[in-house]
Design brief:
Length: 421
């Protein structure tokens, strides 16, 4: 018998979401065959069958969030049976959802007054629950309006305040034509029109990002160093490389990653990390690149950049970026960064500061490359491509002078790009 559990896909992972089962209860599965998809804090990955047999005892529903090492199901071979705690229907964690399930309606002999049920969900036997905001229900109850008569314009057809107010105004317009002997009645009280706040729960990736960036900013003593770098020669080299081989496009970010790798070899303390009152020097230069995806922000890690060519870094970067956008990054491709590069230059951002991404002790924030007027030593004015970078440093590891020396080396490499080849 093999037990299928929620795997721990990283040191910081404490729970995961079972996205969907790829196999059904009672299906025959082979060892290594994908049987389920789970979502970690950063990506969606497949769980493979640890052995061959029959899938039994599925105990976690799709969409459920459960701690790591929680049994999800079992793979049984002929003659084996489920363990006693897995017999029958197991209780699964409730699926994460932004909607409140409709409550089962209780039959009553007489209809309840509208005012008494205005704040409760409008659920009826055999009918779908009416989605309406509390304020919309209150206004409808005050005016004796059946919510079934109103078409909702909110999310998923939800009836909101503006829908009820619009219905009231439409009824006022048709009332004189339908009235036979109108009786003077007091005008209804004016209802102030107020916009409703929209509440959207954070997805799993943004929850983890919020938690980790808060912890990093509160526990790591940050300081920042900014330097301007001339990019004329680096951009010229990039253009030449891309013209020689159009099958692989070298980006500005690839140049920066390679230059950082060379600089980190010369300033190894910037590549180290603080741990239990000691400095830990890793086995190589592992540079994380920040990637914006629909769900939030991911950091993919290029391992052992110190031994890779510029073309190799460009090729691996393109692969990781595509996998990140497809939600297919593996846990090993998102962990172990010793340095991070965050580039917002493509959005026109000239300069910014970034929060350190542990376990790294520094992160380089890269701004846009802009053509500016540069005054030479002889007083001449020349247009040049310039870029500003800001290094966020962990002061427990990096002193100001060390960070400045690293940036000087990085500047020298990018302004003389043959040093990185």
């Amino acid at each position: 018998m093999h037990t299928i559990t929620m795997p721990k896909m990283g040191d910081a992972m404490e729970e995961g979401t079972l996205v969907r089962w790829l196999k059904n209860e009672g299906d025959t599965v082979n060892e290594g065959e994908p049987i389920a998809e789970i979502a970690t804090d950063k990506a969606t990955v497949e769980i493979e069958a640890p052995g061959s047999g029959v899938l039994k005892g599925i105990s976690v529903q799709e969409g459920a969030v459960v701690p790591v090492n929680t049994p999800l199901a079992y793979i049984l071979q002929e003659g084996e049976s489920l363990p006693s705690q897995a017999d029958g229907k197991a209780t699964a964690a409730a699926p994460a959802s932004t909607e409140t399930p409709a409550a089962a309606a209780t039959p009553v002999s007489t209809p309840a007054p509208v005012a008494a049920t205005a704040a409760a969900p409008a659920a009826r036997d055999g009918e779908e629950r009416i989605l309406a905001s509390p304020l919309a229900r209150k206004i409808a109850a005050e005016h004796g309006i059946d919510l079934r008569s109103i078409q909702g314009t909110g999310p998923k057809g939800r009836i909101v305040e503006r829908d009820v107010l619009a219905f009231i105004e439409s009824q006022k317009a048709v009332a004189p034509a339908l009235a036979v002997a109108p009786t003077p009645t007091p005008a209804p009280a004016s209802i102030p029109v107020a916009t409703e706040e929209r509440v959207e729960p954070l997805n799993r990736l943004r929850q983890i990002t919020a938690q980790r960036t808060t912890e990093a900013h509160q526990t790591i003593p940050h300081f920042y160093l900014t330097m301007e770098i001339d990019m004329e020669n680096a951009l010229a080299l990039r253009q030449q490389l891309n013209q020689l081989d159009e099958s692989l496009r070298v980006s500005v970010n690839d140049l920066i990653v390679k230059a950082c790798a060379v600089a980190l070899e010369k300033h190894s303390v910037v590549n180290a990390r603080y741990q239990n009152g000691q400095l830990v020097y890793p086995d190589g230069v592992h540079i994380g690149i920040a990637i914006a995806v629909e769900q939030g922000l991911l950091v993919a890690v290029l391992k052992h950049c110190e031994g890779k060519s510029l073309r190799c870094i460009a090729q691996e970067s393109q692969t990781l970026i595509q996998k990140a956008r497809d939600g297919k990054l593996l846990p090993d491709e998102m962990t172990g960064n010793t340095f991070t590069v965050s580039n917002l230059g493509m959005f026109g951002i000239e300069q910014f500061t970034a929060i350190i991404n542990p376990p790294a002790s520094a992160i380089l924030a890269v701004g846009a490359t802009k053509r500016v007027a540069v005054i030479g030593d002889d007083g001449s004015i020349t247009p040049r491509q310039r870029m500003k970078v800001t290094l966020s440093c962990d002061h427990r590891v990096i002193d100001g002078a060390v960070g400045a020396q690293f940036l000087q080396t990085l500047k020298q490499i990018l302004e003389n790009p043959l040093l990185m080849l």
